[in-house]
Amino acid sequence: MIAVIADREFRALFGSPLAWAILAVVQVLLAYIFLTRIQLFVEFQPRLLGLERSPGLTDIVVAPLFGSAGIVLLLVAPMLTMRMIAEERRTGTLRLLYAAPVSMLEIVLGKFLGLMAFFLVTLLMIATMPLSLLLGGGLDLGQFAAGFLGLGLLLAAFVAVGLFLSSVTDHPTVAGIASFGALLLLWIIEWPGGSEEGAGLFAYLSMARHFQSLLKGVFNSVDVFYFFLLIAVFLILTVWRLDADRLQH
Amino acid sequence: MSADILIDVQHLYRYYGGVCAVNDVSFSVRRGEVLGILGPNGAGKTSTMQMISGTLAPSAGGITVGGIDILESPKAAKANLGYLPEHPPLYRDMRVDEYLLYCARLHRIHRHQCDAVLAKTKSRCGLGDAGQRLIGNLSKGYQQRVGIAQAILHAPAVVILDEPTIGLDPIQIREIRDLIGELRGDHSVILSTHILPEVQAVCDRVLIIHQGRLVLNDSVERLTHQQSVTGLRIALRQPPDVAQLQAIAGVEQVERLDSNRFLLHHPPDRNPADGVVDLAVERRWGLFELVPETRSLEETFVQLTAGERLAGGEQEAFP
Question: For residue A92, what is the nearest residue in chain B, using CA coordinates?
């Protein structure tokens, strides 16, 4: 059942021009960033050769590319997540799912995985750019993999948060702006710095912090656990919210 | 006995905030029965149907579908249900075939059977040639058919249709009625409407809900028998004296409507039509109209629901 719902969501996305537009815009923006980083690397390469423990191609091109991809997708993800439930509630199609023999968890997971399948396509398209460097150079594949995983987890968290906020309202735009706000807050929450009390908590809550360490190639289970926790919490909240739909009006 | 009862609703209540939209409604539906739920707008019809379909939780009371409690095991109970909400739940940007295939898969119809099920359902609902069209481009009537197709395609034991003929033209309405008649065989059908002739045409039993309360639960046959045929309206070119009409066997009372028209009252079991026609020919009255005056379900309905029409106004806002 989860697969059936996910499959529909995935096809529906590609049936609309929005998904194609997003793929194109993200690709163009990131290609530009990719090229500027390549240029930077080519300029500095002679000087880097002289350094000991110098940053390599992966540090200079891949990590910043994935970092920028995180920010670009933070802007883009709410546009896709906002419609997932809010619009279905508005048009009444949510009743089709409520009346079908499927549980709320199946509905939520189906929608989550359907959207993740779309973002996997986006991620693979982004990943082809750094992978093309293998034609003429060498990459630290371990760091690349950690960064790719980080970007994937980050996106899954974006989708989970967006899905929950989409289930709260029946106005897609409200869900969109709320998700954007929530995601940005989770991104910048570490800004208070290290000196104040409770800064450790803020740093732990920050998505950017955990994402950055994965980009550096440090595979720390704390970071991965953080993302899993965030995703699970928001998916469970979404299930609760949909259950409450039947109880209250 | 319980094997025959497909839907059993016991003491159902539903509150929206402080307003009671459904107030102590109990009824049951047997296999093969077509039940019509009648009521003015805002009476609680839709809420009741939503609760039976499992898309709205009741505030109190119990519902079983085919013996399965819908609150305790919703998935098993919903497998026996097909539901068409008031607004058909259609994805406008899907094609009819895609949409129906999705619904079939949601109802766990095996992939190999989907083609056959879709073809059968489409022909039943008159959608044979619409498979490749976008739902958003279909007319209201066709969208309604897709909604009905969605509700019956997994051959559920109980089909719940919330105002299935709304927005359809008379020919389509007749087709939908035929379809409901066809479903009657092995499914039970619950349909809500505020079109009274529809209930008389297709339903076996009728519930009238008013301000959340069940005010009538009776078979259509009995209602029709009790309420109907109490008069015969005739029009004559050369009308005779009232006394001559009064003398016809079976006529209890004669009411003169205008210079040519009369209303003859008679008991339900003695229809004086034959006598009237014979005499009219014999005495050359020039009979040109003879219409049985049926006291319809409409009057029962109005009688039961009109009393507090004003007080009911505040409930109009609720679904």
Answer: B89
Q: Reduced to 3 states, what is the DSSP secondary structure of residue B224?
A: helix
B107 and B208 share a domain?
no
Which residues make beta-bridge pairs with B191? B36, B161
Instruction: Name the minimum distance, in Å, from the CA of A101 to any CA of chain B.
Output: 4
* Phi-psi label, residue B137: left if phi above 0, alpha if psi -120 to 50, beta otherwise: alpha
pTM for the structure as a whole: 0.83
A residues 53-112 closer than 8 Å to B (CB): 91-103
The last residue of one of the domains, among B154, B180, B212, is B154
CA A189, CA A178: separation in Å to the nearest integer? 16
Nearest CA in chain A to B78: A101
Asked if the interface predicted TM-score (ipTM) of this complex is over 0.90, the answer is no
**Inter-chain touch B75–A4, beta carbons under 8 Å:** no
Residues in chain A: 249
Q: Indicate the DSSP class of residue A134.
A: G
Mark whether B305 and B191 lie in a shared domain: yes
**In this predicted model, what pLDDT tens digit does every residue of B69-101 receive, in sequence order?**
988 888 899 988 999 998 899 998 899 999 999
Nearest-Cα distance to chain B for A1, in Å, is 6
Write down the domain spans for chain A: 2-247
**Chain A CB contacts of B161 below 8 Å:** none
